[in-house]
Design goal:
about 500 residues, alpha/beta, Elongation Factor Tu (Ef-tu), domain 3, Rossmann fold, Lysin, 3 domains, six-stranded antiparallel β-barrel, 14 helices, 16 strands
Amino acid sequence: MSSDHPALNTGDLRSQWLADYQPQLRISEIGKLAAIGDGIAWIEGLPSAAMDQILRFENGSEALVFHLGSKRIGAILLGQEDGLAAGAAAHLTGRRLDIGVGDGFLGRVVDPLGNPLDGGPQPQFSRRRSLEVSSPPITARDFVRRPLLSGSKMVDTMIPIGKGQRQLIIGDAGTGKSSLAMDTIIAQKGRDVLCVYVLISQKRSAVVATIETLRRASVLDISCVVVAEATTTPGLKFLAPFAGCALAEEWMWSGRDVLVVYDDLTTHARAYRELSLLLRRPPGREAYPGDIFYLHARLLERSTCLAARYGSGSMTALPIVETEQGEIAAYIPTNLISITDGQIYLDPAFYARGFLPAIDITRSVSRIGGKAQLPAIKGEAGRMKLDFLQFLELEVFTRFGSRLEAGVDAKIRRGCLLRELLKQERLAPLSPEQQLAWLVAYNEGAFDALAGAAVQARLARLLHKAAAGGPGLAAGRDAWREAVAGWLHEAGDEPPA
């Protein structure tokens, strides 16, 4: 305060405050920690506690209110400091759980509370966002019109994904679900799409391998990895996908395109079941609580494409779910199939035969992605998809060893060729120009006279040429046909007829 105004001196202000002070009764609620274990705290007292409210214990530990009982409340421990034991005092904070958001999280590995796990400093952020918010209203949404390229031949041509779509990746353990998701993230390099990868209840070795894969592919700087390891508490495993969704939502509402991968929601459902049983909630089918469908529905409903007046941002979700022995009619898989806009099913039998990615087209579908597919690829893929589906129907006749009609035999040979062309190595996504190049070459018969390794050799040479540049996706089919013929000629192959 300036000394030019004696009435405003610090001493005068203190004297005035003391003169005006009147002792008043201040009421506050103090609860008592009754029991603790398995990441759950039971608290007596605190009658004003509300669901999803943060509690603070006297040693600094925090917990999230998750169950309201007549005599006790149950809370999920968010972090247990030393010395927390029964009898500790608990206080209401009046806060709800939130996480820091913003570009400071790009290139970082964090836990579901936003704390760094990569050895770096605390991520910088200017605002926070609640983990649990309502999904965008229907008036704020727009139609899915723009493609999200996965780099996979089978996905981009036959099961296309649009920005703002929720596409389920489903299959048995060890069939390549996570690899397909990582391919999709790698394909976003240079496409102005940010990525969030949520790893739920995975071993530390698998987490490290995933992070190193993203780093080697130079996409970690456009990604944020949210990790809840297998050894962490069930509460943090439960919160992990909501934390990843909150990070992605901030970018979506800023007008940017985001891809979020939940790997996987099977382990998330098990963590929620464990929490519910520990909190003594009544079990339902397969011991899951009755609101397990609502849990995943409210998470995935937050993925959408926003209307232009809200910034035109989008959040595309790729939830992963694991099946057992190919049983897609199990409880959690059927829940997620009904929530999402389509599914990509990976068949263990295809994987065992070496057909990678092991996608079963007959059980995979994209309900809205076709509206967003690139027109040039959509036009070329229509004929190819018909050929492949006809082949899958006719392939059963080859098992009898009987002589086939010439027309049927030709379709089967063409289908076998197409199956060879659709094979793709892990972590090798294709650009849309490469996709269009091989589709034009196939439709023009450039591979018809080849088989086996010769098909892959010619395809590799063609894709190498197409990666260097081409007529552009807006060019007509004649321009692409001439370009493909020229590339094959330069590579020493015969041009398509």
